[in-house]
């Protein structure tokens, strides 16, 4: 996927998390090991796309995530190459290969200046 459309999807996701009267000050991303985007490029494009929105000027923390397997049944991580979950024998699913995930963000209330951290649990994947 082209960087710009990925960043637009990501920005839309970020802006949905911020309520009226809040500014997004920080965005935390994880990048799959095989993701074709570099953290620097993503931060640059995000910065451009966020101009004029509530996320303008937000810093972007993008961290490379090691590719790994995780059990679908119990959530235990497993090494690549394992045929099944080492603790329950359940099916393993690959994670962190190519996806860019929104892990969390930091918002500031414009009125009070109060800063709040928002964790994104599940569904943070942006393709
Ligand atoms: Zn398991």
Task: Give a written overview of the molecule.
- It is a single chain.
- With 127 residues, the chain is an alpha+beta fold.
- Helix content is 20%, strand content 35%.
- It has helices at 3-17, 39-49, and strands at 22-32, 59-65, 68-71, 77-78, 92-95, 100-109, 115-119, 125-126.
- Strands 1, 2, 6, 7 and 8 form a 5-stranded mixed sheet that branches.
- It is elongated, with a radius of gyration of 16 Å.
- The termini are close together.
- Bound molecules: zinc ion.
- Residues 71, 73-74, 76, 85, 87-88, 90 line the site of zinc ion.
Give the termini separation: 7 Å
Largest sheet: 5 strands, mixed
The average pLDDT value, as a whole number, equals 88
Summarize the amount of helix as a percent range. 10-25%
Show unreliable segments. Answer: none
Count of DSSP strands: 8
Task: Characterize the overall form.
Answer: elongated
CATH architecture: 2-Layer Sandwich
Strand content: 35-45%
| Rg over CA atoms | 16 Å
Please report the first level of CATH classification, the CATH class.
Alpha Beta
Number of domains: 1
Q: Which molecules other than protein and nucleic acid are bound?
A: zinc ion
The run of helices and strands is HEHEEEEEEE
User: Which secondary-structure class do the elements indicate?
Assistant: alpha+beta
Oligomer: single chain
Per DSSP, the total helix count is 2
